[in-house]
Design goal:
The complex is a heterodimer of chains A (198) and B (376).
Chain A: H1 8-15, E1 22-26, H2 32-41, E2 44-49, H3 52-61, E3 65-67, E4 82-88, H4 97-107, E5 108-116, H5 121-128, H6 153-162, E6 165-174, E7 177-179, H7 183-186, E8 189-196
Parallel strand pairs in A: 1-2, 1-4, 2-3, 4-5
Antiparallel strand pairs in A: 5-8, 6-7, 6-8
Chain B: E1 10-11, E2 14-18, E3 22-23, E4 29-30, E5 33-40, E6 50-54, E7 66-67, E8 81-82, E9 87-88, E10 93-97, E11 112-113, E12 118-119, H1 129-143, E13 150-154, H2 156-167, E14 174-178, H3 186-200, H4 218-232, H5 235-241, H6 260-275, H7 278-290, H8 301-304, E15 311-317, H9 325-337, E16 342-347, H10 361-372
Parallel strand pairs in B: 1-7, 6-10, 6-13, 8-9, 13-14, 14-15, 15-16
Antiparallel strand pairs in B: 2-5, 3-4, 5-10, 11-12
Classes of the chains: A alpha/beta (198), B alpha/beta (376).
């Protein structure tokens, strides 16, 4: 699959979204995913971000963006309003992980999340050598990282099971290549499609 | 960029008269009225590039540029409007108008009531946001503008932009609602009521017919403006700008001015009382208090906004406690509910409600980006 969006996880996310859906993109950055979804799939999209530069970039990109602090939750959005609530490579930067996952599945029929997998081999090796992992997907030093939650695919799946969140689909990537075996060991990026139980 | 080089330059107000009666929200009828307005830039052949700038409590039609021979008499939003500025007059045809009931030349309490031959004074009806927008629509008709590319306003002006989107959804493509609210809170109405009481209780008010007595309720208007000013600034900014600094070296142990803040408020109050009309102030604060598009929808703002078709930019300022960010977010969520296009920026700015008149770089970058994205 060609990497049309410059972020390979976007391609996976876009595949799960049908034309004309309502989509909320949490931590939407410059709005390029929303712009793509709007132009290619006629999606009604709204981005959420709290970085002034990203707000400006979204407006320049012509996509809807709402400046709010995700840590404060999504209380302004109605139950079940969105078909998909997307959070691409941002879940690890939020402190209230549990609450936000619940909120995503409150306002959306499904949630799509991607995050760097701390369980990937090179990260484990770094830890085994006594150092915090620094890699392409975790490019920060421990003292300047925006990441505040450090978890593996296995950890995430345990949380979902405990909270009644259904894993509808999952993908793993190493670099831009799809991983098929032992995702928690081989994937540096995990992408999940999540739903509610029942 | 040097602001002197990208000014719209010398401008002239214009006047237009409407002889078709205007039925007002409060039930009265204005048999005829005049509006004073200014325009900047050129209306394009398709008449698709017009932007209406709505003023707030004390503003007027003089939005940008200066009057001939008065280089310091700059329009109140001159930092936003001009060639190369965020609201670029090379792209847009910009219209500023003094609202009905105003005191800058449009029909209002200070103008002559044709029925009596005397100034309207207190007999001028209480006009509200709906009436202003209806009058502005008449102006749009006269200027040959079927639909505004955008209507923009701050504070009370933002309410007018919202009202345009609700009342004439087919005549407004973009609404910029800056430092505004879907309705005032009790606290906000309370400030307005104190301001009104200051004016109404001034012995020179004469039931609103002070013109005939050759006086103005300057003390009341001054107090009204002083309390207004306190609410337009943030606590932080007041501390930074004035702190507890004394006007002169030492405490006076009298009721004369001790602190710089007292001097500032007195100065602002006196200045305002020297040029603004008390009846207009009363009407305008009532228009603020009454604005509540959700009222006819059982308080459901989202239901009220269902009529709108425009794309919105909503902007608030972090230290604005008179029109707080939470109030702007209510508008945003109401628009999202209806699947309308909306972007919302919450600008970090220390200057309180007045921030919307300043040229904070990020704020103006957001405004510029939004206006640049408007297709003509």
């Amino acid at each position: 699959m060609t990497n049309v969006l410059g972020r390979f996880d976007f391609d996976a996310i876009a595949k799960w979204i049908r034309p004309g859906e309502k989509v909320l993109d949490l931590g939407c950055g410059d709005g390029s995913l929303l712009r793509y979804l709007r132009d290619e799939k006629g999606v009604l999209g709204y981005g959420v971000d709290n970085d002034p530069d990203n707000i400006l970039a979204c407006i320049r990109n012509g996509v809807n963006v709402v400046q709010i602090d995700l840590e404060a939750g999504l209380s302004g959005f109605e139950d079940g309003f969105f078909d998909h609530v997307v959070m691409s490579l941002s879940l690890q930067t939020v402190r209230h992980t549990e609450r936000l996952l619940a909120e995503m599945l409150r306002v959306g029929r499904e949630a799509v999340v991607s995050f760097p997998n701390f369980g990937q081999r090179s990260h484990r090796e770094a830890i085994a050598e006594g150092r915090m992992p620094v890699s392409k997907t975790l490019p920060y030093q421990w003292y300047n990282s925006p990441n505040v939650r450090f978890f593996t695919m296995a950890d995430f799946e345990t949380l979902c099971a405990e909270r009644g969140i259904v894993l509808r689909e999952r993908l793993g990537f190493d670099g831009e290549a799809a991983v098929t075996e032992d995702l928690n060991l081989n994937a540096s990026i995990a992408v999940y499609r999540l739903g509610k139980a029942g | 960029m040097d602001t002197s080089s990208n000014s719209v330059g010398a401008v002239q107000p214009q006047r237009v008269r409407f002889d078709t009666p205007l039925t007002l929200a409060g039930g009265g009828v204005l048999p005829a009225f005049e509006l004073v307005y200014e325009t900047y830039g050129e209306l394009n052949a398709a008449r698709s590039n017009a932007v209406l700038v709505c003023h707030a409590l004390s503003g007027n039609h003089h939005v940008a540029g200066h009057y001939a021979g008065e280089p310091k008499n700059l329009g109140w939003w001159d930092n936003l409007v001009g060639p190369g500025k965020p609201l670029d007059t090379r792209k847009f045809f910009v219209v500023g108008v003094n609202n009905l009931g105003g005191c800058y030349g449009s029909t209002g309490p200070v103008t002559v009531n044709p029925a009596s031959g005397r100034p309207w004074g207190a007999d001028f009806p209480v006009v509200v946001v709906e009436d202003w927008v209806a009058a502005q629509a008449r102006l749009a008709d006269r200027l040959g503008i079927d639909a505004w590319a955008a209507v923009i306003g701050g504070s009370l002006g933002g309410m007018q932009a919202m009202q345009w989107a609700l009342e004439y959804p087919e005549r407004i493509r973009h609404a910029l609602v800056i430092a505004s609210a879907p309705k005032l809170t009790a606290q906000n109405i309370a400030f307005n009521e104190v301001a009104r009481q200051a004016i109404l209780s001034d012995p020179d008010f004469h039931g609103g017919h002070y013109y005939e007595h050759g006086v103005v309720p300057a003390r009341g208007l001054r107090l009204a403006r002083m309390i207004g000013h306190i609410t337009y600034l943030s606590d932080d900014q007041m501390a930074e700008k004035f702190g507890r600094r004394l006007r002169q070296g030492d405490l006076k142990f009298s009721y004369d001015v001790d602190f710089e803040i007292e001097s500032y408020l007195r100065y602002q109050g006196d200045k305002f009382a020297g040029y603004f009309d008390a009846n207009t102030y009363l009407i305008t604060t009532k228009a603020l208090d009454y604005f509540d598009p959700a009222r006819d929808y059982g308080g459901n703002l989202a239901a009220a906004l269902a009529r709108a078709r425009a794309d919105f930019l909503v902007v608030s300022f972090s230290t604005d406690w008179r029109f707080a960010p939470e109030r702007s977010r209510e508008i945003v969520y109401g628009l999202v509910h209806n699947g309308l296009g909306v972007s919302y920026a919450e600008i970090e700015c220390s200057a309180g409600h007045d921030s919307f008149l300043l040229d904070d770089p990020h704020y103006h970058a957001v405004m510029r980006a939004y206006f640049e994205g408007i297709r003509l």
